[in-house]
Specification:
Blueprint lengths: L6 H17 L2 H18 L3 H26 L4 H19 L5 H14 L5 H12 L4 H30 L8 H29 L18 H9 L2 H19 L3 H7 L5 H12 L1 H16 L1 H21 L7 H21 L3 H4 L7 H12 L2 H15 L3 H34 L1
Helix pairs in contact: 1-6, 1-7, 1-8, 2-8, 2-12, 3-5, 3-6, 3-17, 3-18, 4-5, 4-8, 6-7, 6-17, 7-8, 7-12, 7-13, 7-15, 10-15, 10-17, 10-18, 10-19, 11-12, 13-14, 13-15, 14-15, 14-19, 18-19
């Protein structure tokens, strides 16, 4: 990557990575995450159908994580990221036409390619190089915390747009809800396009390009993958990302939880989730600070362990009989913990001593394993909720998420032991 010495220019670069890194996912994820009840009604979908649509996104994404990694080691991140943003934004034009469930599946499959293939590994590598050898926790905390701030700010604007058509507490007709969702979609398409132009203006032309190994010799894709695939720490990191990402995907259901279990209105539910999402900045920065102080692995282990407790409380407590503020407090803590572990799990690349020149290859392998929840979590969660409407269905969902967090804690413990062994060797 082109060396950037100016603090101001460095600040602009990380800001742009953050902005692009969140808005690339706004169309396929934000519209559903923040407006799920209204979205399901307008598109005439069940949770099961929507879960299957997200499964198509996940299948295509998984297929392109692997080949996308080496591209980030050989081509300019600026070019890769800009193309991805523009292609993703173009999908908003079709999305706003409120296509059928089958057509929506093709759109999400398209987004599975455009949001990942050229973009994901380039963003991770750019962030790692920006952070240098001694501030990986800080770099990835800024990335994820900043992405959280972008997500919450963009959602706040989207909620304001929806409110123009769907005032909360008023029995609004379906046509108005349709107009509201369409306006929200166009809004997200516009800001995604805006992010593409910011990337073109700010990111250095040769950003992220490194085609030699640590000894200065030319590195081949086959050679990079052969080395990465043989390292147990890479597979353990893949499992850590998988279990943490299950928790992150689980956050998409809290808006529906507020509506179906706590009787929140559609707009009130969206506003609550949007406001809680602002905690992502606080969570990420605290996680990054703690990771640089006590170690990334230890911080991830503590976070997973706390998540197990939170999900157990959701699954076993009589939530409808409890004061609402206690339930909301547990929701907030869950969001904070999920955001914290998500903020720093890729910082484990530095702790595991993965070479800079093989970052793209490692990210490709880790992501193929780690983001498989894009395939299975939404279909499974949708069926759990639809099969047992109300508290029971959500209890089953929280039990599943708690089990994944427990597996994440075990994987992290094994990784810590492996890293210690490598250092002692």
């Amino acid at each position: 990557m082109t060396t950037i010495h100016s603090p101001l220019r460095r600040a602009f670069v990380i800001f742009t990575i953050v902005l692009a890194g969140e808005l690339i996912f706004s169309l396929p994820f934000h519209v559903v995450r923040f407006f799920r009840p209204t979205f399901l009604e307008v598109f005439n979908l069940t949770n099961t159908q929507l879960g299957d649509i997200f499964g198509l996104y996940g299948i295509l994404a998984m297929l392109v994580y692997f080949p996308g990694g080496p591209l980030a080691d050989r081509f300019s991140a600026r070019k890769l990221m800009m193309i991805s943003l523009l292609l993703t934004a173009s999908g908003s034009l079709y999305f706003a036409q409120i296509p059928s469930a089958s057509s929506l599946g093709f759109l999400f499959a398209f987004w599975g390619v455009t949001t990942i293939f050229l973009f994901w590994a380039a963003m991770i590598k750019l962030t790692r190089i920006w952070g240098g050898a001694h501030a990986q926790g800080k770099a990835f905390a800024i990335l994820d915390g900043g992405r959280g701030l972008v997500a919450a700010a963009a959602a706040t604007g989207a909620v304001a747009i929806l409110t123009l058509f769907v005032p909360d507490g008023i029995d609004t007709d379906l046509a108005s809800k349709r107009q509201g969702i369409q306006s929200v979609i166009y809004y997200y398409g516009a800001i995604t396009t805006f992010a593409a132009f910011i990337v073109f203006l700010v990111i250095p032309k040769e950003s992220g390009v490194q085609s030699t190994d640590d000894d200065g010799e030319q590195s081949s894709i086959k050679h990079d993958f052969s080395i990465v695939l043989k390292r147990p720490v890479v597979w353990l990191q893949g499992m850590i990302v998988l279990t943490a990402y299950c928790g992150y995907k689980g956050l998409d259901y809290f808006g529906l939880y507020l509506t179906n279990v706590l009787d929140f209105g559609a707009v009130q539910s969206a506003q609550t989730v949007a406001y809680i999402s602002y905690t992502r900045v606080f969570a990420a920065l605290c996680a990054g600070f703690l990771a640089d102080k006590i170690g990334i692995g230890k911080t991830v282990l503590i976070t997973f362990s706390a998540l197990v407790v939170c999900y157990a409380l959701f699954a076993t407590s009589p939530v409808q009989a409890l004061p609402q503020f206690l339930v909301l407090a547990n929701i907030i803590v869950t969001f904070v913990l999920v955001f914290a572990v998500r903020a720093i799990y890729f910082a484990l690349l530095e702790e595991s001593k993965i070479a800079d020149t093989r970052t793209g290859a490692a990210v490709g392998v880790i992501s193929v394993v780690g983001y498989t929840p894009d395939i299975f979590l939404a279909p499974v969660a949708g069926r759990l909720i639809d099969a047992n409407p109300g508290v029971v269905g959500f209890s089953h969902l929280f039990i599943m998420l708690g089990l994944f967090s427990a597996i994440g804690a075990i994987s992290t413990y094994l990784l810590i032991r492996r890293v210690k062994a490598l250092r002692a060797a």
